[in-house]
Fold each of these.
Amino acid sequence: MRARLTGIGVACPRHRIVEDVAGVASAATEFGTDVVLKTTRGGYDGKGVWMIDASTPADVVAEPFRAGVPVLAEERVDFARELSAVVARSPHGQAVAYPVVESVQRDGICVEVIAPAPGLPEDRAVEAQRVALTVAAELDVVGVLAVELFETTDGRLLVNELAMRPHNSGHWSIEGAVTSQFENHLRAVLDLPLGSPAARAPYTVMVNVLGGDLAEIYPTYRHLMARDPGLKVHWYGKGIRAGRKLGHVTVYGDDLASLRERAWHAANYIRGDIDE
Amino acid sequence: MRARLTGIGVACPRHRIVEDVAGVASAATEFGTDVVLKTTRGGYDGKGVWMIDASTPADVVAEPFRAGVPVLAEERVDFARELSAVVARSPHGQAVAYPVVESVQRDGICVEVIAPAPGLPEDRAVEAQRVALTVAAELDVVGVLAVELFETTDGRLLVNELAMRPHNSGHWSIEGAVTSQFENHLRAVLDLPLGSPAARAPYTVMVNVLGGDLAEIYPTYRHLMARDPGLKVHWYGKGIRAGRKLGHVTVYGDDLASLRERAWHAANYIRGDIDE
């Protein structure tokens, strides 16, 4: 992925394939930063990723090499936040770009998405959309593509990861956009004209509900729906496992601080972290 | 229905059960208006309804009596337009009222719904909602109830019909309201707290697609979706029959005239009445 993106002129973190612990040290010297190691298969939601600094014990640095797949070393990017640019593209080449969102991560897992990314300068948002549209066109993507980006502290955009499917960072679009990422994915696959990706409200906030020590979920609906008639609860019906994305909640409106409070309250209540 | 509504103080057209053609003439004299005859079972979408005036031949006046069910005679109301007040009510008695809509009829069939009803005075809208909430409470309705009303030329509201289910006049809420009538119907049946019925846009316009001499539907999507990325097409997958409601289209936004043009264009194009 890194080779191909670099080949089509898309900015990525500096990177190279490493063979062993000595290779990691050499990469750190080359980059002049701490290093991120990634197994090149099987990673998601922070799995298959190691953060390496000068104090990391050698046996931890050796861990990724035990997976039996090539290991990628990347510079540890000094980023202000993570963004996601979601696009949809159909076989005949029509493409639409959703508003660029901020993706809030905790322990390598997306926990919250704010659409659009607050305070993102217009030219940087357009640049992120252009990167995603370029990737979709160059890789001949059909359907939804999410491009996850670092916004660096010095204002650059670097591609972190690609997801060639309807993506967690696009779930806000179910209620928040004229056409949801799922509808546009289907339109794209069917080669029907794509629907407008425009936002329907000034802000939409989505918070994931991650698995853990959850009690029964259904009774929490009664309290939350009574408390907040504008709250949308999505539950995937998956088995409960710690850290797994089991569902999400969405709210939309004008006042970002209030929306974030409402969404986080609901997610925390479903999880049982708060009881009122 | 008329007896029960009158009993709970809800205004209806003047009415009485008639036994024969002579009874119809007598009702016309009593009301001082033309008469509407309705069979008391089996009617929908204009079926089971006869408009009778002084020039109607006796054999037509006699028609409804051949259905073998009691026949209701009602005054022919001098109305400016038809409105619909949709509410949802749950077993524990919570209820929500959607914005009151205008329902445009052609040949006894609803062809268009405008949400909210343009130019409806606030106090009259509240009266319509109060009527619907009263009917729901008095009849112990669980789920969605649509109350179809005449807005008379002298500004009164009279109940025309009831529909105790998600109703055509509420389809606009799928995209147009915070909580669709279908979601609130399910919440009501499950006795979960109801969601906000508030409108999401200044206006939402829904136009039905009625069956007739239709060619293949699917190819029309390509033109319509390309022409209008904000258009929402709903197709029910029913067999095609003249006058049958086969699907509907919805648009929402600020400019009512433009919304009506877009929605009618799409419905007429799907029907094949226009070809561009």
Amino acid sequence: MAQEKFSYVIIGVGGVGGFYGIRLANAGADVHFLLRSYAEYVKQHGLLLESPDGDIRIEKPQAYGAADEMPRCDVVCVCLKSTQNEQLKTILPAVVKPGGVVLVFQNGVGIEQEVSVIVPQAKVGGAACFLCSHKVEPGHVRHEDYGRVTFGAHSDGMEDVLARIAGDFSDAGIPVDTADDLRCVRWKKLMWNVPFNALTIILDTTTNKIMACGQTRQLCRNIMVELLEAGRAQGFDIGMGFADKMLDDTAKMTPYKPSMKLDFELGRPMELEYIYERPIAIARRAGKPMPRIETLCAQLQFLDERNRMDANRNC
Amino acid sequence: MAQEKFSYVIIGVGGVGGFYGIRLANAGADVHFLLRSYAEYVKQHGLLLESPDGDIRIEKPQAYGAADEMPRCDVVCVCLKSTQNEQLKTILPAVVKPGGVVLVFQNGVGIEQEVSVIVPQAKVGGAACFLCSHKVEPGHVRHEDYGRVTFGAHSDGMEDVLARIAGDFSDAGIPVDTADDLRCVRWKKLMWNVPFNALTIILDTTTNKIMACGQTRQLCRNIMVELLEAGRAQGFDIGMGFADKMLDDTAKMTPYKPSMKLDFELGRPMELEYIYERPIAIARRAGKPMPRIETLCAQLQFLDERNRMDANRNC
């Protein structure tokens, strides 16, 4: 007997939520998009994913302006900026089925724990995306490159349900895999985000220039070592080979501005809490402080504060 | 029987060399100024020190365009930017009397050692200045505030000669004292220069704003702790009370741009070698690495490199 198909909620239809949600809907999945003030616009104009793999248009998406208008679904994909996670306290209890799944598509650590507290009856997992994609305008997303997603369980006993979700993603043409240790996946993503988000912002530059300067390249490696050692103190070993390959790959990459840098340039708050502040606190508790990363974090907090003051002045 | 008066050479007539040299000359000391390409201009127009303590004009200074035109003197004051220290290899052997004294008025550590190698027959000491003063144009220096100088011996057996020099400075109305441990004096100056030079440049801001943000204020304190511990590992203890008083004083100071920030803004090379690179190497050798300061140094090296490339482009 075939199982009933999963229904999906996409919270946040930006570069990430738009890419995965539109691909799932296009493959025939039952996908519900939470779009807040843009819901009416998207109902009229539809959703559009531009991609080198072929453009996808969803003429009549299931679009909603508020969580309490939505049906409860099996799988809720959290694709907001983590600076807006305060909203999850009201959204998640309204949209996840009892016994359903919440998947966190955000960068950083500690979010799955918070989600488990908000919806204790749900199973919570994480999704780490390797994706270059951004929102052009409401409901219109441009995919540039990559797209792989790695799922990992935060709650116990969700291996089967994660495998079924992975099947839906795979059917939608999305490269997908699952990992045994979600913490290790999260910290591996920090290995790139922590040095390159910070240094492109603080030094107002792009990844290739950071890699072209011997001193900042070495700084990136030393930052990765701090994360590696903090990981080991928690019981998982990312391995220096991973860091060195990431450095080499970044040196070869086309010049890139991380999305946190785009946020900064647009005067938006930066996702410092889960990418910097939490890892710093976890590493300290594990007895392996990360002083280089603490330095970057303080610098980013200063810039974030100045950015907000400037934004207020412009009001 | 009265001792013969000391003769002085001032190398580098900027904010520091101008202030001390003009005051000494005004008090009747025999002072010789090395001015390179500006010598002829200064011979015609004289030297001018503007100061809240009263302006001083030296109509006919002893000004020279090259070291080999100068008489050998008893005391040579090194007041160049340390980025130009390569020049000392030719200047110092030409201007210091056998058995004379070279005093290093620059910030940072390791310079006295290098000077001792260049002129092994000279006695070498250091002078730490607390002075706000800058060059307005060739031969014209504006003194804003402070002026105290602290002398310390690098070579053995120079206490008496340092006391005589201190007497000359004191006679010229300059607040002066001497310290037992020159290294401790040098590292105390780093306590301010290392955090505030770096952060005003990297974050493009002023000292008061760094102190107004809780995270960067804490970062400054943590940087001072790194210097303090590196000092202890070398056998001297600056004490946390000194750091906390410095933080409080800086918070109360009028907004201030360190001279390294002015150099950066003018596209000039920054004095990274003796203020950052040498202390970092010394601390590593002493078994107390300073990872926060290493982070700042790599960032400054990146910015310095970019600044030089921009300067070349504008040629």
